[in-house]
Write a structure and sequence with these properties.
The longest helix has 30 residues, at 122-151. The protein contains 3 helices and 7 strands. It has 152 residues and is an alpha+beta fold. InterPro entries: CO_DH_gsu, START-like_dom_sf. It holds the Pfam family COXG.
Length: 152
């Protein structure tokens, strides 16, 4: 499954990049996130509860960031285990393009799922993934925009 999109955030590139690396910001924006622990600048551990169709699962997983192209680009890879519900793994490439006082955030994400979740059908999985991604980026833009107006 692949997801691609872009969003304009009303904050400069350095502020957007910093927010994408802030566990507190990410925790409030990730749908269903119960816990997000930063083990290092490049390693995070997450606990997320998601409902996909009739299946509700608590995922525990790890995310590794590759910041070698920062602050213009970075990528992340992760995998999570939802017990009997199944497992997921994937990654995303993110680019941040400065445009005056705003930043264009583009992402391309890929994911693979297995177990009970994979039996739900690709259409349901794809639409749920799109909704979750849209919810994350809408929340993220709101938090960063709010933060920018507080600091202004």
């Amino acid at each position: 499954m692949e997801l691609n999109d872009e969003i304009v955030i009303n904050a400069p590139q350095d502020r957007v990049y910093a927010a994408l690396n802030d566990p507190e910001v990410l925790k409030q924006c990730i749908p269903g996130c119960e816990e997000l622990i930063k083990h290092s600048d490049t390693e995070l551990e997450a606990k997320v509860v998601l409902k996909i169709g009739p299946v509700k699962a608590r995922f525990s997983g790890n995310v590794v960031l590759d910041q070698s192209g920062a602050p213009d680009t970075f990528s992340l890879t992760g995998q999570g285990n939802g017990g009997a519900a199944g497992h997921a793994k994937g990654g995303a490439d993110v680019s941040l393009i400065a445009d005056g006082d705003t930043t264009v955030l583009r992402y391309a994400a890929k994911a693979e799922i297995g177990g009970k979740l994979a039996q739900l059908g690709s259409r349901l999985i794809q639409s749920t993934a799109k909704k979750l991604a849209a919810k994350f980026f809408k929340s993220f833009a709101e938090v960063v925009n709010e933060d920018a107006s507080v600091q202004a």
